[in-house]
Amino acid sequence: MSSNPSKLEINKERVGAWDKGKEQEFSTLSKFVAVYCNNHHETGKGQLCRECRELLDYGHKRLEMCAFDPKPKCRDCPAHCYRKDYRQRVREVMKFSGMYFVKRGRVDWLIKYFTR
Ligand SMILES: [Zn+2]
User: Fold this and answer.
1) For residues 113 and 28, is the Cβ–Cβ distance under 8 A?
2) 68-69 and 9-10: which strand pairing?
3) What spacing in Å lies between the alpha carbon of 51 and ligand 1's midpoint?
4) Ligand 1 centroid from CA 6, angstroms
5) Ligand 1 centre distance from Cα of residue 67 (Å)
6) Which end of the chain is more exposed for a tag (fewer CB within 10 A), N or C?
7) Which of 80, 34, 74 is CA-nearest to residue 53?
8) Which of these, 82, 76, 33, lies nearest to 56 by C-alpha position?
């Protein structure tokens, strides 16, 4: 209970603010959702079905409201700010699209994303 390795600062000014880190994270999320949607919901390239659009919008909102400074990787974050059903969906998206990009050798920015 007493071990809390990463020190997370809450900075209220970060709430509702959009910065480069959040922007980068969102652009990654967008790519993942797009690949997932195009391969599961018969949407064309550059398109999202309503459900996936909703999920992405939700992710955008959560990211916008994140007050941690610096922002931890979402998977390491103690807050778990996603609602349970969205969290489950994002997890599926990450699993599928992660494999998709790995199979296509698109690991450069993927590794950067997960190890930064
Ligand atoms: Zn979809």
Assistant:
1) yes
2) antiparallel
3) 6
4) 35
5) 29
6) N
7) 34
8) 33
Q: How many CB atoms lie within 10 A of CB 11?
A: 14
> Which pTM value belongs to this model?
0.82
How many residues comprise the chain? 116
46 within 8 A of 103, measured Cβ to Cβ: no
Under the phi-then-psi rule, with left for phi > 0, alpha for psi from -120 to 50, and beta for the rest, what region is 46?
left
Residues 63 and 57: their CA atoms lie apart, in Å, by 10
What amino acid is encoded at 54 in this protein? E
Which segments of the chain does DSSP mark as H helices, in order? 20-40, 50-65, 84-103, 108-115
Whether omega before 70 lies within 30 degrees of 0, making that bond cis, reads yes
Of residues 67 and 49, the one with the higher pLDDT is: 49
Q: At what angle do helices 20-40 and 50-65 cross, to 10 degrees?
A: 160
At residue 89, does pLDDT exceed 90? yes
